[in-house]
Design brief:
Nuclear Transport Factor 2, Chain: A, alpha+beta, Glucose Permease (Domain IIA), binds zinc ion, globular, M23ase_b-sheet_dom, 432 residues, five-stranded antiparallel beta sheet, metalloprotease
């Protein structure tokens, strides 16, 4: 019995010694000293520099970051942190002039700063971020108040260039651009090139300004200029404002845009084309269809195809709710079967190209939701898909010298942007 006991003691001592030497050798004295020192330093730093989040000292609080769930309201968020219904009601009232609490949207970030007393959380403040550029602070303790803070935004000039391999989208993203930039470039060149098709070997340069917050890009401010080499033909684009908003112009000062949108609606498919004769699905007889039908879900926005004056905004038995625009002495367009006409659209009102005029529906004689788009040229209905659309206004005489000077400045900048090393195979494919 005794022998066994002593053996256990010896083993225990041995393992202790082993453990001790191991521990000891793993940490040298120098390191040990360093650790003690840094520990005290970090404590000092903590004391002089409190942690500040959204302008609030949060050292003695718990901080929880989450994103708004579907159908979640400010009440749902705050009740979980033991804020009373009464306080929430009061808070919503106080917030009224600053931020409408009903506008809290899914997937947006929010932060709750709270105290954890006896494991019962009690919110001190809620911070909601509607976009990367600003945040709303709801102070819940002491005096209840709400304010919006804007983060400082820096505007930085940026350039992206690339050689298209599969799509403009992929190439711009690969070079550090965003989907927003892709949309802007595709819209800008939309009349020259159909970017839904692939043009391997095509090259582009885009010069633009970007909004950044704390060094992080949050959006495109504006495009300054661009160059596109499409099947070896260069397309220059210079952003210029000649008094009626920014437009894009080419080498000669001609607008890149046409006087009419290619499509006045984002459609899912063309359900019926312009034809002199077709079988009408509702009337069950052959009839001419003097418009183009764009199938799209009910409520899809419809835009004015060009600048003009509203001549009609009515409900009619067959055409349903419809709007007609006179663009000039030559052209008029009409939009049929609207679910609703946009607010304020009335005869006599001036509209700009791309302005919202109504929403897709199936009012009047229609089987499903679609836009029937009609196009008049010199008083006769023509096929909007085939008519040769006139270009938008070029640079006016008065602005020409200014434009030319600005154009040289933009071109000089564009010339300094290099195209990335091009892949020979891609170039070969592009020449085929
Ligand atoms: Zn139609």
């Amino acid at each position: 019995m005794r022998k066994i006991f002593s053996a256990v003691v010896v083993l225990a001592v041995m393992s202790l010694a082993y453990f001790y030497t191991f521990e000891y050798s793993a940490l040298s004295v120098v390191e040990l000293k360093k650790e003690v020192k840094s520990d005290s330093i970090s404590k000092e730093v903590l004391q002089v520099a409190p942690t500040i989040l959204y302008g609030i000292v949060v050292d003695s609080f718990q901080v929880e970051e989450r994103s708004v769930q579907r159908n979640q309201s400010i009440s749902d968020i705050l009740l979980a942190y033991n804020v009373s219904h009464q306080t929430i009601y009061h808070l919503a009232n106080v917030a009224k002039n600053v931020f409408d609490v009903r506008k809290i949207a899914p997937n947006k970030k929010y932060t709750v700063i709270y105290q954890d007393e006896d494991s019962l959380p009690s919110a001190t403040a809620l911070v909601y971020e509607p976009n990367p550029e600003e945040y709303v602070v709801f102070n819940l303790k002491d005096s209840i108040n709400v304010y919006v803070e804007k983060r400082p935004v820096e505007i930085k000039e940026k350039a992206i260039s690339g050689t298209i391999q599969s799509s403009l989208y992929e190439e711009i993203l690969k070079n550090g651009g965003t989907p927003e930039l892709v949309d802007l470039v595709a819209d800008m060149y939309g009349w020259q090139i159909d970017f839904t098709k692939i043009y391997p070997g095509d090259q582009f340069k885009v010069l633009f300004t970007e909004r950044t917050i704390e060094g992080k890009a949050v959006g495109v401010e504006e495009i300054i200029g661009a160059e596109l080499i499409h099947y070896n033909n260069p397309f220059l684009s210079v952003a210029f404002d000649q008094g009626d908003g920014v437009d894009y112009f080419d080498e000669e000062g001609k607008s890149l845009r046409k006087a009419f949108l290619r499509y006045p609606v984002k459609f899912t498919r063309i359900s019926s084309r312009y034809t002199a004769k077709r079988f009408h699905p509702v009337q069950k007889r052959y009839k001419a269809h003097l418009g183009t039908d764009y199938a799209a879900p009910t409520g899809t926005p419809i835009y004015a195809a060009g600048d003009g004056v509203i001549t009609k905004a009515v409900y009619e038995k067959f055409n349903g709710r419809n709007v007609k625009i006179r663009h000039n002495s030559t052209y008029s367009t009409q939009y049929l079967h609207m679910n609703g006409i946009a607010k304020g659209i009335k005869p006599g009102m001036k509209v700009k190209q791309g302005q919202l005029i109504g929403y897709v529906g199936k009012t009047g004689l229609a089987t499903g939701p679609h836009l029937c788009y009609r196009f008049w040229k010199n008083g006769r209905q023509v096929d909007a898909m085939k008519v040769d659309l006139p270009p938008s206004e070029p640079i006016k005489e008065d602005y020409l010298s200014n434009f030319n000077r600005y154009k040289s400045f933009v071109k000089e900048k564009l010339d300094k942007i290099a195209y990335p090393e091009s892949d020979e195979e891609v170039l070969m494919a592009g020449m085929q």
